[in-house]
Design a protein that fits this description.
The complex is a heterodimer of chains A (733) and B (180). Helices cover 57% and strands 2% of the residues of chain A. Chain A is globular and about 85 Å long. In chain B, helix 3 links the parallel strand 4 and strand 5. The two termini of chain B are 14 Å apart. Chain B has 180 residues and is an alpha+beta fold. Chain B has a domain of 107 residues: Aminopeptidase (3-Layer(aba) Sandwich). The chains are: A mainly alpha (733), B alpha+beta (180). Chains A and B meet through helix 3, helix 17 and helix 21 of A and helix 2, helix 3, helix 4, strand 6 and strand 7 of B.
């Protein structure tokens, strides 16, 4: 039966029936069809249990990719509605247009479709595929069918346009490494001709419904309506409620569309307008929430099983959706469980998304790099999802420039407090400057990724930053000898080299400290590892502070010389003050790290409860694993497990009390209140640090009084106040 | 929970095809990730010495399925599946199964052992933590049900005879293990 064109299906046709057989696959130039029946029959009779036919490219390892057909855990096609295609579902009236011949029911059904799409959209954003969520809507899959129904049609068009816009933005930004399900849109009809006009179509539908609302209010207050308007639906008692419910949904969608269009304008030109649309979106969301009571009170349709987790405001099942129809379009492999978020949770999701986008829109587009880094770190504290993070990333790095305006060599020259180098071609072409520019771009993009991914990438780029630091240091020493701390008689070349080295070192340690603190946010450390982590943080932060203080010294030296030469203050005193405050904050962190490391070490040394014995390895192996990337990058150099042990082996609670680390931290937080008065985020952090310091100081005194080896003492460490600094909780049993 | 003493549980290395349905039955019932029979065969055929079963009389109550190989020039063990049925949890059976397998990996020259576990699986995280695993990475939405995972890693000491001697002693004795 070789070389049959169109006959290669063998006997399979008899089982299914010819009507629904797919067209047979034709043989190609290099292939023939051969009947494998006899081979399979012979194998079945000869193979023993556990034996496998294998070949060069089909081994046991390859066989693991096999899917068992009809196993619901693996076969995404098995749980389906029974329809083999979208057309078959449509023929069976799954997605009628209009949704009902009864105008009231039609409106109700459209509201359910809109609401379910809203829940699907939130589910998509939270990490599921478009095919299993938004595009489980048959109306969206065959938009042309909806043309006779202007409301449904306009809503579908704008949904499609928004999905398309977001998929493009996220794909282009490539922020979405492990979240690649978001942008998977294979074979989905995402683009439509004329979609750029979707807003004007929606506006005209909104205008019609607004007029219907005005007309029904005029009627109810017995005023004569100026226009003869056909009502939305047949029940006059429900007209106002339905009009309002529809209007807030349409308006939300319109303003939501505008948010993204404004945010995409280059150089942040649309950010202010975007914020206004965000505010309007939030207002319409609250109207949508209010409509829930009205919609739930209407008796019609079939309710979803659990009304509290229903995907529509009314609680009723929407018509026109079938997630299984796209199973052939989904990613090859086992089906991912797609549980559509409830409508209430979807409202919550969009509220959060809009607040996060508002934060992005409030970004100052004339930034100093230090401020940008601080801003991104603050943003990540909101735990933003992919869409918000992508929009911050594309704002920060556009066309290879910071905020689309400043090339990175200019950014560096300003960061080095040498703005006179901005137009200097030699400076721009310097290999170190070019390399550093690339590292900064990469760092900004990494800081916009999800924190699990981010930490891994930060650990990896430490090598690159460490290598650059080393190269700069070697170049400096070759050129100028060991004069890093000497600032007199320096020419421009020496000035640039020194500042570049200090700045690169400082930011290498900044990356290292973020790498370590993210470990707390990701819950990567167990309590018996806190001691070594705080110790390492202490070491890294000390280096960071040292470099920051060198930068402060350089800045103040420059200021002094300019004053002496009676030149204008090119320096910004506010910026210098901010740098000093930041350095002082790092000092506060250092006190807390040292206090915690020594307290934990003392507990380990004095109390059996804190000792851990593993059968397979010891503390040295765990130290080596946690800090492997830092050690490989020599960030910092000469740090080892033995140094850690030397520093901590003699720690005793009484000694830790005497050193007053936590009191020192409290003194610093008090002194910083003036500098941070205008910044609510910083003030909040100061409060948290104060709480941690106070609680730990008291806990330490209690432990000291009772005795660390007292068997009734139970000490645990919790992150109640600050995500990175633990608070000791002391109990007695 | 039936009272039983540690000596009532018999630990047996994978012995052949007759063990496969027992292993598959346990794993299919208890774990959310889908595995075809080929996955099991891959593990037990190539590394039969790394799969162990726990029996209470005739009943198979737990199993661990592992493999080892090279990853970037490092010899590494991998714990694929670990299951103990519900009525038998909390008695150290899982710890014992894993410990046996890890001991074989160590004796075979592995430098480290790794596995993934759901971030919400407190029992597994505590078990592996006690054995010396660290949480090396967090993997965002790793599982099909959308839950994050930790990549857990155990690094064996490089060449520390004291540590090796201690670990052999602990591993060999039939000591009571911590409750899960």
């Amino acid at each position: 039966m070789a070389n049959h064109q169109g006959g290669g299906g063998g006997g399979a046709g008899g089982l299914i029936g010819h009507a629904s057989l797919p067209p047979p696959i034709p043989a190609g130039d290099q292939t023939v069809w051969a009947d494998a029946g006899p081979l399979i029959v012979a194998s079945c009779s000869e193979l023993q249990d556990g034996e496998l036919i294998h070949a060069e490219n089909f081994s046991l390892f390859a066989a693991m990719s096999a899917l068992e057909i009809m196993d619901p855990k693996m076969d995404s096609g098995i749980e389906n509605s029974g329809y083999h295609s979208i057309e078959e579902a449509i023929e069976n009236n799954i997605a009628p247009v209009p949704l009902s011949l009864d105008s009231t029911l039609d409106v109700q059904c459209i509201l359910d479709v809109i609401d379910h799409l809203f829940s699907c959209e939130a589910t998509w954003h939270k990490g599921h595929s478009l095919a299993q969520t938004v595009f489980s809507c048959i109306y969206l899959l065959r938009i042309e069918r909806t043309s006779p129904h202007s409301l449904l049609h306009s809503y579908c068009r704008i949904m499609r346009a928004i999905c398309n816009a977001l998929v493009s933005v996220v794909s282009d930004a490539r922020t979405n490494e492990e979240e690649d399900l978001f942008a998977m849109a294979y074979a989905l009809p995402l683009k439509g001709e004329g979609d750029e006009k979707c807003l004007s179509i929606l506006n005209s539908v909104e205008e019609t419904i607004s007029r219907q609302l005005r007309a029904c209010r005029a009627q109810s207050s017995r005023k004569k309506s100026l226009e003869d308007i056909e009502p939305l639906q047949r029940n006059p008692d429900l007209e106002e409620g339905y009009c309002r419910a529809l209007l807030c949904r349409l308006r939300f969608r319109k303003h939501y569309f505008h948010v993204f269009m404004c945010m995409r304008k280059p150089h942040g030109k649309g950010l202010e307008l975007a914020r206004k649309h965000v505010a309007l979106c939030l207002s319409e969301l609250s109207y949508m929430s209010k409509s829930l009571e009205f919609l739930r009170s209407l008796p019609y349709g079939s309710f979803q099983d659990d009304i509290e987790s229903s995907t529509t405001a009314s609680g009723c099942k929407p018509i026109g959706f079938d997630a299984s129809l796209n199973s052939t379009l989904s990613a090859p492999g086992p089906p991912r469980a797609t549980h559509i978020l409830s409508w209430k949770k979807a409202v919550g999701y969009f509220q959060k998304l809009l607040h996060d986008l508002d934060f992005v829109c409030s970004f100052n587009m004339e930034p100093v790099l230090e401020d940008v880094l601080h801003y991104v770190v603050q943003f990540q504290k909101l735990q933003p999802d992919l869409v918000a993070r992508t929009h911050l990333q594309i704002l920060l790095v556009q066309d290879g420039k910071l905020c689309g305006k400043d090339s990175f060599h200019d950014v560096i020259s300003r960061a080095l407090a040498l703005p006179e180098l901005t137009a200097d071609k030699e400076f721009q072409k310097n290999e170190f400057i070019v390399q550093l520019g690339q590292l900064i771009v990469s760092l900004l993009k990494i800081l916009c990724t999800n924190i699990a991914w981010q930490r891994r990438k930060l650990g990896k780029i430490l090598q690159d930053w460490g290598v650059l630091s080393l190269q700069l240091e070697m170049a400096f020493k070759r050129e100028f000898g060991d004069r890093l701390n000497v600032m007199v008689d320096e020419n421009m070349c020496m000035k640039v080299s020194r500042r570049l080295l200090i700045w690169t070192d400082e930011h290498t340690y900044w990356i290292a400290s973020r790498f370590l603190t993210l470990g707390f946010e990701l819950e990567l450390y167990s309590p018996n590892e806190y001691c070594m982590v705080y110790w390492y943080m202490y070491v890294v932060l000390m280096r960071l502070m040292e470099k920051m203080q060198m930068r402060i010294a350089i800045n103040s030296e420059t200021c002094k010389r300019k004053r002496e030469k009676k030149k204008d203050h090119a320096k910004d005193p506010a910026r210098d003050g901010s740098l000093s405050s930041s350095s002082l904050l790092i000092h506060c962190y250092i006190c807390l790290c040292e206090g915690l490391a020594m307290m934990l070490a003392a507990l380990h040394n004095e109390s059996k409860a804190f000792q851990m014995r593993s059968p397979f390895n010891g503390e040295e192996e765990r130290f080596s694993q946690h800090f492997d990337l830092l050690q490989k990058a020599h960030v910092p150099d000469h740090v080892s497990y033995y140094l850690f042990k030397e520093s901590t082996v003699h720690a005793r609670i009484s000694g830790v009390v005497k050193h007053n680390y936590f009191r020192e931290a409290q003194r610093i937080t008090s002194s910083l209140k003036g500098s941070f008065a205008g910044d609510p985020n910083r003030m909040l952090e100061l409060q948290q640090l104060e709480q941690v310091a106070e609680h730990n100081r008291i806990a330490l005194n209690v432990i000291n009084q009772v005795g660390a080896d007292d068997p009734s003492l139970r000490v645990s460490f919790e992150f109640t106040h600050h995500p990175h600094f633990a608070m000791a909780v002391v109990k007695r049993s | 929970m039936t009272e039983l003493s540690p000596s009532e549980i018999e630990y047996v290395r994978y012995g052949g095809e007759h063990h496969l349905p027992l292993i598959m039955g346990l794993v299919d019932r208890e774990l959310s990730e889908p595995y075809s029979i080929f996955t099991y065969r891959y593990f037990v055929y190539l590394w039969p010495n790394l799969t162990f079963l726990a029996f209470h009389g005739e009943k198979c109550v737990g199993t661990v399925v592992c493999k080892m190989g090279h990853h970037r020039n490092i010899s590494r063990g991998y714990i694929g599946m670990l299951v103990v049925i519900e009525p038998y949890r909390g008695r150290g059976i899982a710890t014992e199964l894993v410990t046996r397998s890890i001991r074989v990996m160590m004796e075979s020259g592995c430098q480290e052992v790794t596995l993934e576990a759901e971030v919400t699986n407190k029992g597994a995280l505590a078990l592996y933590g006690r054995l010396g695993f660290i949480r090396a990475k967090r993997l965002f939405r790793y599982y099909l049900n959308g839950v994050d995972a930790f990549r857990l890693k155990l690094l064996f000491p490089k060449c520390n005879p004291m540590l090796l001697a201690t670990s052999n002693k602990n591993g060999g004795d039939d000591q009571p293990v911590n409750r899960l």
